[in-house]
Amino acid sequence: MSVTAGLARFIHALDFAAVPPAVAEKTRTCLLNGYGIGLGCHDTPYAPVARRAALRLYGEQPAGATLLGDGRRTAIAGALLANSALFHGRAQEDTCGAAHLGTVMIPLLTALIETGDYPLARLLPALLAGYETGGLLENTYAGRTTPGGFRASPVYGALAAAAASARLMDLPEEQIAAALANAASFAGGILQSFTDGTDEWRYQVGLAAQIGLTATELARAGSISAPHAIEGKSGFVRAFAREDCDAGALLAGLGKDWAVLRVTFKPYPVCAFNQTPVTAALALRQKLGSARIAAVRVHMNPYETGYAGMDATGPFDSISGTLMSIPFCIATTLLHGAPDMARMTTYDDREVNALIPRIRLASDANVPSLCCRIEVDTADARTVIQDQRMTTRDFAFDRKGVSALVRRIGVEQAVPAQSYDAIEAFVDDLPGGSIHAVLRAFTLLPAARAPAKAA
Questions:
Q1: 70 with 42: CB under 8 angstroms?
Q2: Co-location of 188 and 317 in the same domain
Q3: What pTM value is reported for the model?
Q4: What share of the chain is helix, strand, coil (3-state, %, to 5)?
């Protein structure tokens, strides 16, 4: 059986009522996190850029999909570009390995349900189908594709979006397989923007959602698509990962090794790989007290230190640079405590910029992923060490933890508590309720209440 056929069979047969309770609950938690983080991103600058582009491309469409946090409507494709950029605004979205699948799928499914009259009962099954599809491929191949310069979110997110939209539309198996094959043919996205500290990555997730939806609509319209698009000799795996694909081995874990259970959440507005270094630096800050820092050595897994932008030392002029930089994140945390958006966008802090050159990275294969060892030499000739051992479990918050996280961000960003009340009630009520409860939650945002500016 080909990979697309095997995935299609799994997606078509997926019965949300029959999945393990932990899987069902984690899917709800991912949905709450996606909406909650999106609310907290309302004053980041990326969604306005994407909205202007979307409205110039597609214009306002009264029967279209809502631009969340803005209120105007446009074509679904335009809403995906803008709303995914909104959800990605703090870089504090969910993470499935190295892929931020929630920023791709949740805006997509929201727009489709708003405009397509699809039953709300399909939302959670569709979301789970996408996490399992994108997560399976990411977990198997990101270790090869990321060092090759490809970004996991758009590469695997396009297939996740195809799986989610095809499941929402309740397509037959052969059309789901075609949608996945199409997405495999269209997927892509590079990492250079992290190295240069620019913003293209903010918009990649919306484009991945567009690709996934286009792939599905082509399949529904009758496209003839490669059955071996993933494992073929010129297929997805060979092209991106430069290795052969064992279709049977790849499919064997479906419905057993649930990818959604690997999804983690970010307590800080920094890269997923910097969550543990920041946690370690906070512990070191307590240990160091008033001691002056002479030098810092950071030991991390080579996969993480080798990711684009992680070793950047500045000078910085964008948060796209600071949130990726291990030295910046550690320096600002050691000196000022837990990073927030204000701290991550302070580029001229003399203390931080003076400490960064004294921070050295060491790629150490003996340090597991999501772990780090930080050694701080003090001016009084002491060495203070924090060996921070963490796994995905440490960041896999339950729904109560996610609620606390997004509401904490809401206080920082002046989001009305009623917005969080609304999205929590919506997630609780599924499969009942209405998608308009989510749309209303975003109308309460300060930016949404302000007069709309012309595109």
A1: no
A2: no
A3: 0.95
A4: 60, 10, 35
